[in-house]
Amino acid sequence: MLSLLNIITSVCALAATAAAVNPIVVKEQEFSDSVTNSRFVIIGIDYQPGGQGAYGTNSGDPLSNGTTCLRDAALMQQLGVNTIRCYNVDPTLNHDECVSIFNSVGIYILVDVNAPVPGLSIDRADPSSSYTTSYLQHIFTVVEAFKSYPNTLGFFAGNEIINDVPTGQANPPYIRAVQRDLKNYIAAHAPRTIPVGYSAADVREVLQDTWAYLQCNNANGGNDTSRSDFFGLNSYSWCGNQSSFTISGYNTLVETFSNTTIPVFFSEYGCNNPVPRAFDEVLAIYGPQMTTLSGGLVYEFTQEASDFGLVQTYSNGTAQLLGDYDTLMSQYNKVNVTLLESSNSTATSLQPPQCNSNLISNDGFSTDFNIPNPPSGAEQLISSGVSNAPTGSIVSVTRTSVQMAVYATNGGQVSGLKIQPASTANRPGQNGSGLSTGAAASATASSGTGSSSAGGNATGSASGSASGSSSASSTGAAASASASSGAYKIGAVGFAGGAVVVGAAAFAL
């Protein structure tokens, strides 16, 4: 019989290790929880600390530093976020720590497969020359890195490749070709179907045609793998508290996508002119007028040169919450989540139109639905898989308390910041009344460089690197390392007369 100490140890560890969230599937117009069948609406934030300029600098991958991810996941959990988007990931690094942390708090991940360097993305000026087997090997390696995580929501095959009428001529067939290749690779090598889609620029003269081209069915009665599974929209048309549902053109977007047969959502939103941002659009995006759409992701979590951040981070691991963080939390807390989770049977029984030139309204946009064949060697690569590709897996989350100092907008240090285990998608308002702070601290950012004092990994058995800095900034208050290794305590617990059986779970303290 298990000793009382062993039982308590196991129960404590189970409390600190969340069961995996359920994978998300696409049901025509909606995302859906694959187990509960509840509708899933994205309440998200774009997450790329350091920006795309940090890619390849050993600090540009947002999901390879467990200590940083623990801090940010705790702040996002309090905010109410259920999804993040990561634009540039290095598939050769180990992401187990970070992805497991986000999984444990009910946060899904949308991953862009491309990278901001020549040869690792489709060149909108010359798509045919950049559609190569070496390019496909890179994006397939990204799939390998993230295919086994249950909280991988989907992959973006492209971002704003089409940004005007001229780029709407040659590029659409290649976007569909990349989507086809990704979906065929996933079908051959992933343990489940993972959605693949596209993130579009909000250029109204080509927006509807881009969506129409990518969502139509190009197969004669069969399964069209080149078709988008979802459609993201990078839109900044709602600016300030003087805007509205009609001034912003949101009413036009609802009309445009009213008969969509794939989920449509804002893959970026949050105009920052004027500042500070009021985020009044949140109640429209998640309100009854826009239930056709599937939510959105605010741009962005960390403060970068473009001034869209919710949180200012420093090289020593400390962070300062900005006013936008508090404002966004306030707006999120007004959202009616019950409304969002109500599935529409009509929306999940739609059939896509057959691809044809009549779907396209702009004379300069492509009506060519002859999708390019894979480049030489690609079909063999899809069949055999990428050799020796690192494949991620969920590991136990053993540390839940944030080890570095985080300061609230009032200057006070946030106390007791930690992640809380969850087995369902995170949502606004479910993690208490907000962050707790002490008196305003004298922790104004110093001009010296800092180094994180938060030693140790935030997860158990991950074997990869976790050495990247989450920010290019070199100032910040000194980091605090006062966290304990476990945030959950069990008081007087009695066990008698039987064995305790726990299913598939990892136990570690």
TrEMBL record:
Where is this protein localized, as stated in its record? Cell membrane
Protein topology in the membrane:
Lipid-anchor; GPI-anchor
**Keyword Signal attached:** yes
Compositional bias annotation for Low complexity: 433-475
Compositional bias ranges of the Polar residues kind: 421-430
Q: Mention any Pfam family matching this sequence.
A: Glyco_hydro_72
Q: Where is this region: Disordered?
A: 418-475
Protein name in the entry: 1,3-beta-glucanosyltransferase
